[in-house]
Amino acid sequence: MRPAFSVQDHSISKETFDLVDCVRCGIRLTNPRPEPTRIGSYYVGEAYLSHTSANRSLRERLYRWARSWAIARKYALIHRLQPNGRVLDLGCGTGDFLAHLMSRGYLVQGVEPSLIAREKAIADHGLSVVPSLDQVTAYEKFQVITMWHVLEHVADPRAVLKKLFALLSDRGLLVIAVPDRDCWDAAHYGPYWAAWDVPRHFNHFRRQDIHAMLEEHGFVRLATKPMWLDAFFIAMLSEQYAGASPIGALLKGSMRGLWSNVVALCSDRPTSSSLYLARKVEP
pTM for this structure? Predict the structure, then answer.
């Protein structure tokens, strides 16, 4: 392992963690990682927005609007590539995305480790949600598996991809969205870049990292797409972590998020997050 730099958990614990680069594969890792018995405590807090439906502060309202907009875009993407079938969503949070798919006729299954988020998904939407991937039954294959900003959270992404390959039907669609540490805003904000999100993010990927793992596990890549909206939210949080006022974070974050997207549009650098589409093709 090669040391990179240290990052503070700005949102919950205020603890500091080191980032190190794997010399063999190049993936950047959070070190040390909290023990499995402790990691849950780093997800408990009003600042962790994906596990809450709060709508009080400006940041929470912006997040809720962005999530609603994103759900519609996610559905359109999946419907175009796979108009029906069974969908498994890892890290389904409070279940809004799966509920939208279910209302459009898909059969859905969720995986969510957080007890609070899982119970809310079940109570609010009547979803089938289990706490771990190991509890997903494989008596019938899934036509779509999605991981929206989840792979960076798992301890062993290769083991997860191996399990997902087994759960997908032939020609099944795999959708992965993760932050991309090669983006302009990651370089600009350095240790204040909000998408490091230590210690919840164990892994910090580049495009070549995801491409290599997909190929390694037998998936055929369809496309790697930009995620334009993420830059604005990540830049606003990063400005806040760097000490800006709420209004300053909104204004400066909007400008720098826009600039990050311009850089991605005019060069080969990625947006703040990247979306990967792949299919399982039986040999």
Answer: 0.92
